[in-house]
Write a structure and sequence with these properties.
Elements: E1 2-3, E2 10-11, E3 15-19, E4 22-26, E5 35-36, H1 59-64, E6 83-85, H2 89-99, H3 104-111, H4 115-123, H5 130-140, E7 145-147, H6 167-170
Antiparallel strand pairs: 1-2, 3-4, 3-5, 6-7
Helix pairs in contact: 3-4
Length: 175
């Protein structure tokens, strides 16, 4: 039996429904919240936004993911290649600035930015734009990013404590 992805009820034959752009397998009651998706895969026409990984998909996506779904490995996506802003970016900026003996105003002047931008960044009140991040990294000789993907993804594995939660556990239905 499969669990409804909205309310968590055990369902023998779930319906695939598109809700707010996401395809979910839901029970009959929750199917009213979306549009039922046709699951016929025998059609020869392809849609622009198809998410199924059939044998007719492009070879580059299957080779980039390390083969089919039988390896037990997580499928790679575009976010694996992206750099993420480090969680302690504010501390990195402050310690590098102080290490160089610069005031916030002096650093801001060198970067052609306002001093208030530097203050907000060092307090963690705002995130740096890509332009400001690059200026800070270049001037202070630091890195404010961490690479995406990698070993940190283990917290999202199915063995985690939250694996049994569904959307229905978090959302209250309007009656």
């Amino acid at each position: 039996m499969v669990q409804c992805e909205m309310c968590g009820k055990e369902v023998p034959n779930p319906k695939t429904v598109k809700v707010e752009g996401a395809e979910l397998e839901v029970c009959g009651d929750c199917a009213d919240f979306g549009t039922e998706v046709q699951t016929e895969s025998s059609s020869t026409t392809s849609t622009k936004y198809s998410t199924s990984s059939s044998s007719g998909s492009s070879g580059s996506s299957s080779s980039a993911s390390g083969g089919g779904s039988s390896g037990g490995r997580r499928r790679r996506d575009m976010f694996d290649e992206m750099e993420e802003l480090a969680g302690d970016y504010d501390q990195r900026i402050r310690s590098a600035r102080e290490g160089e003996g610069l005031s916030q105003e002096e650093l801001a002047k060198e970067l052609n930015e306002k001093a208030s931008v530097i203050r907000k960044l060092e307090r963690g009140d705002s995130l740096p734009s890509d332009d400001v991040r690059e200026k800070l990294e270049r001037r202070l000789g630091i890195s404010l990013t961490e690479s995406g993907g990698g070993a940190d993804d283990t917290e999202w594995s199915s063995e985690s404590d939250s694996a049994g939660l569904t959307l229905g556990d978090k959302v209250k239905r309007k009656d």
